[in-house]
């Protein structure tokens, strides 16, 4: 009898768990999505809403069995494993870094640090231990002023690392985009200092402490791919109140030319969706994707970093865990396609020769300008 009651309780708990994690199943027109399983629909004829529902069902179907397999692939991954031979160039001739670098970008409060903690929990099996401070629970006022490198697999042989960057400001968008361009072109390193115009309140002691942490001895890494983290709840609620600043800002960030790698857009990670109703969550995703001009399903992931109890959504939410793992896996696939060939002796010779020609060109231009001025001065004397 007790056994029967226990089984019933366990089934009820599983049903509640599925309801929480499969939130989209309470959406309008979900019955139409169920009917699609009975036949093979023409994808192009589906409405954007049905495409999103179908994508969420795909994740829910694969998650229980596919999560551990995807974890294993990421754990055994080494930089360059997903590189595909093209143009007759061998893998040994490619400039493949020791570890691919994934950069998390977003505005303050978007959930970048929470996403890093979730990566540690899902991929590094760290449990509920937070590895980085979030903007909501940070005990240090200036902890976000430094770029942070994270080995989310917690493995000495990890083939990739994740960088948590300082959050951008809606009121300093163009200055932030210039800073982003420097990160993408010059590279980033652990504890890299990110000071901005609004940091005037920092004392000399604060700056000195931050500078001491930002050492040039850390390895400088070239950014191989970027993930744009967006607070879907904040963007949706602001748009409903006729405030389109967050929506325009995320478009400027997402469409920044320096973020395109191998002719691919950055990944879009939507967070804080649990703060919206089911219909608002789906509508917000559709509106954001439409505004950005991208697919509603490909390269877009709805990830809840924290559960309703404030814990990391790891084993308790297999759909979120799998979506996060798939996003990292996709980022590494694109990263390995973007590696460049190594410079050989001929390339270096051409580069040095071009520098020399530029130097002589500048030198002779200076001499020509100087001679012109001297000639004009002598001409004035005779007049």
TrEMBL record:
The keyword Transmembrane applies. Keywords: Membrane, Transmembrane, Transmembrane helix. InterPro entries: P-loop_NTPase. It comes from the Eukaryota. SUPFAM superfamilies: P-loop containing nucleoside triphosphate hydrolases. The chain crosses the membrane at residues 348-371. This is Uncharacterized protein LOC108994157. It comes from Juglans regia. The gene is LOC108994157.
């Amino acid at each position: 009898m007790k056994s029967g009651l226990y089984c019933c309780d366990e089934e009820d708990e599983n049903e509640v768990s599925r309801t929480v994690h499969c939130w989209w199943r309470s959406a309008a027109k979900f019955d139409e999505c169920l009917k699609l399983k009975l036949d093979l629909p023409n994808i192009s004829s589906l409405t954007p809403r049905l495409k999103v529902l179908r994508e969420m069902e795909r994740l829910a179907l694969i998650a229980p069995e596919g999560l551990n397999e995807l974890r294993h692939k990421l754990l055994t991954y080494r930089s360059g494993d997903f590189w595909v031979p093209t143009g007759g160039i061998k893998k040994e001739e490619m400039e493949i870094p020791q570890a691919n670098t994934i950069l998390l970008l977003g505005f303050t409060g978007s959930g970048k640090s929470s996403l890093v903690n979730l990566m540690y929990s899902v991929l590094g099996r760290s449990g509920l231990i937070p590895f980085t401070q979030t903007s909501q629970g940070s005990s240090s006022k200036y902890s976000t002023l430094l770029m942070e490198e994270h080995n989310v697999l917690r493995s000495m042989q990890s083939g990739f690392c994740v960088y948590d960057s300082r959050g951008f400001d809606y009121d300093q968008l163009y200055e932030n985009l210039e800073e982003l361009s420097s990160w993408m072109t010059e590279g980033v390193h652990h504890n890299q200092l990110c000071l901005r115009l609004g940091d005037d309140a920092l004392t000399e002691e604060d700056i000195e402490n931050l500078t001491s942490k930002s050492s040039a001895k850390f390895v400088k890494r070239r950014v191989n791919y970027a993930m744009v983290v967006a607070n879907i709840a904040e963007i949706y609620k602001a748009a409903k109140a006729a405030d389109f600043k967050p929506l325009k800002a995320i478009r400027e960030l997402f469409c920044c030319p320096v973020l395109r790698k191998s002719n691919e857009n950055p990944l879009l990670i939507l967070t804080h969706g649990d703060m919206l109703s089911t219909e608002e969550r789906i509508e917000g995703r559709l509106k954001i994707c439409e505004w950005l001009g991208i697919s509603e399903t490909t390269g877009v992931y709805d990830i809840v970093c924290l559960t309703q109890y404030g814990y990391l959504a790891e084993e308790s939410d297999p759909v979120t865990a799998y979506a996060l793992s798939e996003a990292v896996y996709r980022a590494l696939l694109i990263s390995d396609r973007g590696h460049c060939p190594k410079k050989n002796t001929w390339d270096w010779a051409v580069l040095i020769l071009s520098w020399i020609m530029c130097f002589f060109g500048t030198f002779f231009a200076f001499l020509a300008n100087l001679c012109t001025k001297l000639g004009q001065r002598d001409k004035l004397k005779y007049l």
